[in-house]
Amino acid sequence: MSLVWISESVMRELCTEADRAYPLETGGVLAGYVADNGEPVVRAVVGPGPEAVHNRHRFTPDHAWQCRQLDILFSESSGASTYVGDWHTHPDGLPQMSWLDRRTLRSIARHRDAGVARPLMLIGGGSIGEWDWVGHRYRGARLFGLLSESDEVETRTF
Ligand SMILES: [Zn+2]
User: Fold this and answer.
1) How far is the CA of 58 from the centre of ligand 1 (A)?
2) What separation in Å is there between the alpha carbon of 117 and the centre of ligand 1?
3) Which of 21, 59, 60, 81 lies 20 to 30 Å from 67 when distance is taken between CA atoms?
4) Residue 97 Cα, ligand 1 centroid: separation in angstroms?
């Protein structure tokens, strides 16, 4: 199983925001870089944004705000931190991909102008103080229905 590296401060921010929004969904985008061995390294997190809409089983981010935050992270890191994926929570649920998550990830892989070939979708399932984070990474288009479109990746903090 491949890995995704997440800084401890990012992991804390994810859990804090997940707790804050519970029992509603929340999420945002992940910034960092893809290492030479192909493993994503997440160094910063962008939250939902002030205009985001949080529901029990769905959340719509404030996309314009997130883009501005990504621009700031890019400048502040002298271009080292760029978009690597999305994250969101499944309150009282499992950190598995829903059909909508699969559709979203496919759409990101096709349309994201950042040119991320294999975007990451990090999902936190659980409740306050007890989040289980699982990364899902886009693999490619489905072939005769045999291949799953994404691989589960193990998360490691650093
Ligand atoms: Zn989901």
Assistant:
1) 7
2) 20
3) 21
4) 6
